[in-house]
Write a structure and sequence with these properties.
Blueprint: H1 2-7, E1 21-25, H2 29-56, H3 65-92, E2 95-99, E3 102-110, E4 113-120, E5 124-130, H4 133-139, E6 141-148, E7 154-161, H5 163-176
Antiparallel strand pairs: 1-2, 2-3, 3-4, 5-6, 6-7
Helix pairs in contact: 2-3
C-alpha cells in the first residue's frame, strides 16, 4: 500500500498542493484472484480439447481440418491473453483516494470508459462498512458505503481491504472538518 501511496502524488485530477493523501486503495487481491480463477477455467479448454476431444476424432488430425483447428485454437488463445490483460487493467485502474479534503473514486468500467467522482468530506452524512461471505470474512475485505448530501447520494468502495479501518478513517477525517463547513444532516 505504501507504493500506491507514493505513486498517488499527482495521481488524480485536480489534486491541490495542500491536499494530503491518507489512503489510496484498490480492490483486494482476492477479488483479482477470483476473476483469474474464472479465466483459468477458460484457459484449460484447449488443454482439455487436445487431451480428450482430439484423440476421439481422427479426422481433426488430418489436413485441412487440422489447420482449421489450429487457427481456431490460436484465435481463442489470443482472446484469452487479451482477456487476461483486460482483467489486470480493470483491476489496476480502479482505485479510491482519501485525502484531508475529499474522497476521489476512479472507476474503470471497461477499457474505453472510466469515471472520476469526488466527494468533499463536508458533504458526508453516513459511512457504513460491510463484510460478507466466506472470503470476505477470511481475508478481511468488503464494501464501504459513504452516504452523501450531494447529487450522487452513495459512494461505494467495492471489495476494499480492511473496510472497517477505511470507514473509521473517513469518519475521523470528517470529524476534523470545521462544523460551520459541514452540510446539515436534516
Amino acid at each position: 500500500m505504501t507504493t500506491l501511496l507514493q505513486k498517488a502524488r499527482g495521481l488524480f485530477p485536480g489534486q491541490q498542493p495542500t491536499e494530503r493523501i491518507y489512503l489510496a486503495t484498490r480492490p483486494h487481491w482476492v477479488a483479482l484472484l477470483k476473476e483469474i480463477a474464472v479465466w483459468l477455467l477458460f484457459a484449460a479448454l484447449p488443454i482439455v480439447f487436445d487431451a480428450w476431444i482430439l484423440p476421439e476424432f481422427e479426422f481433426l488430425r488430418t489436413s485441412p481440418a487440422q489447420e482449421i483447428v489450429n487457427l481456431i485454437k490460436t484465435i481463442y488463445i489470443m482472446f484469452l491473453v487479451g482477456a487476461l490483460f483486460s482483467i489486470w487493467i480493470l483491476y489496476y485502474l480502479n482505485y479510491q483516494i482519501i485525502t484531508n479534503e475529499r474522497i476521489v473514486d476512479v472507476t474503470q468500467k471497461n477499457l474505453l470508459h472510466h469515471t472520476t467522482s469526488e466527494l468533499h468530506l463536508d458533504r458526508i452524512q453516513d459511512v457504513t462498512a460491510e463484510i460478507s461471505g466466506l472470503f470476505g470474512n477470511l481475508f478481511n475485505y468488503g464494501n464501504v458505503y459513504v452516504q452523501t448530501a450531494g447529487e450522487q447520494t452513495r459512494f461505494v468502495f467495492d471489495r476494499v481491504p480492511r473496510p472497517h479501518a477505511v470507514a473509521k478513517l473517513i469518519l475521523d477525517l470528517y470529524e476534523r472538518v470545521p462544523s460551520e463547513q459541514k452540510i446539515s444532516k436534516g
